[in-house]
Write a structure and sequence with these properties.
The protein is mostly beta strands. The chain has one domain (1-74). The chain is 9% helix and 19% strand. The mean pLDDT is 78.
Length: 81
């Protein structure tokens, strides 16, 4: 087995456990605008075999709404590090 870096931004679970959805579809269905959606540079950590890079999403909410988000390991490292 030849080790390798992890995959970056492969599945985005902030959309209710759905795979990555097009921004345009989200913006037409819900009252928000996405100002930034990008890969977070160097977020995979150091080492020979780095984890995959995460994503950055910046929203502007255009109406009052209730938002439920799921984040895990956001402020603490992934298990085993």
């Amino acid at each position: 087995w030849q080790g390798t870096d992890g995959e970056s931004a492969m599945i985005n679970n902030v959309n209710g456990s759905l795979k990555d959805l097009p921004i345009e579809m989200l913006e037409t269905r819900y009252p928000f605008r996405i100002n930034e959606y990008s890969i977070r540079p160097n977020s995979g950590g150091p080492g020979q075999y780095r984890g995959g890079n995460g994503v950055v999403r910046e929203y502007d909410f255009l109406a009052d709404c209730v938002v439920g988000l799921w984040f895990e390991r956001s402020k603490t490292p992934a298990w085993g590090l």
